[in-house]
Amino acid sequence: MHATDRRLSGYRALSFDCYGTLIDWESGILSALQPLLARASATRAPDAALQAFGRHESAQQSATPSLLYRDVLAAVHASLAREWNVSADEDEDRRFAASIARWQPFPDTVEALRYLKRHFRLIILSNVDRESFSATQQLLGVEFDAVCTAQDIGSYKPDPRNFAFLLETAKRLGVAKSQLLHVAESLFHDHAPANRAGIDSVWIHRRHGREGTGATRATQEMPGFLARFTSLGELARAHREALAH
User: Fold this and answer.
1) Residues facing 182 on adjacent strands
2) Count of beta carbons in the 10 Å neighbourhood of residue 43
C-alpha cells in the first residue's frame, strides 16, 4: 500500500464524475453510434469514432453551455453525421441522445459505491441534465448526498464554475475543501480543473492499457492527483486496507 492510499481515510466526502468513471460511457457511446457508423461510407476504428465524439462534444459544450446534455448529444450526433457524410436523421439524433439512459455501470461500480457510502458523503458532479441522470441513478445502487449537474450550474466541466458549485455544495453538507476528494477518469474534464480549484483528486484510470484519451480531450500537461487506480473497486480496496492499518 502506498502512503497516498493511507491518506484516503482522512476525507469526509467523495465527489464523482459519472460518465466515464462510474458508467462505461465509451461502450454506451459506441453501441449507440452503430446505426450511424453502419451508414457511413468508410469504416472507422472504435477509438477514432470516440475521438471524433469527444472533439464535437467539447466544441458543442463550449458553444452552448446552457444547452441540456441530451440536446448536446443530439447535436453531436448530427455533427458526426455531417463529418462522416451521412444524411441527416433527426429521429436518429434523438435516439442517440436517449441512449444515455441505457449506458451501464462498470462491473465494479455498484459494489464499490455501496462500500464507500458507508464511509463518506457521496456527491455527483456531472456534465449531464437532471432527467438523464435520473435514469442512471437507478443503475448505480446508492443514494447520493448531492447531485450537481451541468443543468444546475449552467456550464460544463472543465469550466471553473462547476468546481466552485461543487465546493459550495460540499460546504452546505458541512464538508470543507480539505475534506473533499474528487474521483474521476478524465484528466481534461476533472483533474486539471480540480487542480486549479485546489481540490484533491484520485484518478480512476479506466483506459489503462489503451492508447489515447478516447472520448475525452487530451490535456497539454499531466495534472496532479493523490493516487491512481484502475477501477473504483481498487479505490475501495485501498480504503479498506487503510482502515486496517
Assistant:
1) 15, 201
2) 7
**Placement of cell 472533439 in the chain:** 55
- pLDDT-flagged residues of the chain (< 70): 1-6
Cell, residue 171: 460546504
Regarding beta strands 13-16 and 200-204, do their DSSP bridges make them parallel or antiparallel, or are they unpaired? Answer: unpaired
CA angle 149, 108, 22 (to 5 degrees): 15
Q: Which domains does the chain have, with CATH numbers?
A: 3-24+103-244 (3.40.50.1000), 26-102 (1.10.150.750)
Secondary structure percentages of the chain, helix, strand, coil, to 5: 55, 10, 35
H helix count then E strand count, the chain: 11, 6
pLDDT score, position 3: 41
Phi, psi of 204 (to 5 degrees): -95, 95
Which residue bears the cell 458549485?
165
* CB-facing half-sphere around the CA of 89: CA atoms within 13 A: 15
Are 193 and 160 within 8 A, CB to CB?
Answer: yes
Nearest CA to 175 out of 123, 115, 226 is that of 123
Taking every pair of C-alpha atoms in the chain, what is the biggest distance, in angstroms?
60
Taking each helix axis from N to C end, the angle separating 46-63 and 69-83, rounded to the nearest 10 degrees, works out to 120
pLDDT of residue 36: 97
Q: Which residues are catalytic?
A: 17
